[in-house]
Amino acid sequence: MSIHASRWRANPWLLLSFAIVVADQLTKSWITRHYGEFEFTTLLPVLEITRMHNVGAAFSFLAGASGWQRWLFVVLALGVSGGIIVWLCRMPRAPTLLSVGLALVLGGAMGNVIDRLRLGYVVDFIHFHWDRAYFPAFNVADSAITVGAAFLLLEALLEPKRSAAKA
User: Fold this and answer.
1) What is the rounded distance in angstroms from the CA atom of residue 49 to the CA atom of residue 140?
2) 8 Å CB contact between 125 and 27
3) What is the mean pLDDT of residues 42-70?
């Protein structure tokens, strides 16, 4: 199969990834135009929209480091994204949990990489809390990565059953 045919098969998944990147960047752009850092609006008793800057990874991991973590996260995300693109190019066009999960993870990773390269931090704005227990803020890219990872785990759990049923 030619490289062009492989790319064509991946297009639906790459388009999904691209849609995630666009949605992520549009929402972050809107937040940065309308909110100052730490400014917030309460939507529900447990949900606020607030602008926060995360120089770390998930749950602000390594946020206190001296700046090298920015480049570590960029290189890591680009490497994983390259692997996912190759994987998607080799997958069938039929939708599966695996292909959708990979596309979501790819889109989310690239959305956050754009922030890290452009701003030096990731813009987060969705902030849940219960009473005085606040959970880390997140964004559309983080949501896509989380849902994509859940799809990948579900696929891993279901695959042995499918293989056994075929045998």
Assistant:
1) 12
2) yes
3) 78
Q: How many Cα atoms within 13 Å fall on the side-chain side of residue 78?
A: 10
Question: What is the residue type of 25?
Answer: Q
Residue 63, domain extent = 3-166
Catalytic pick among 24, 115, 131, 142 = 142
pLDDT band, residue 132 (cuts 50/70/90): confident
Q: Respond yes or no: is residue 124 known to be catalytic.
A: yes
Q: What is the dihedral of CA 87, 28, 19, 56, to 10 degrees?
A: 10
Number of domains in the chain: 1
pTM of the model: 0.85
| Known active-site residue 24 | no
- Over residues 59-107, the pLDDT tens digits come to 555 555 566 777 888 999 999 999 999 999 888 777 789 999 999 999 9
Active-site annotation holder among 24, 115, 124, 131: 124
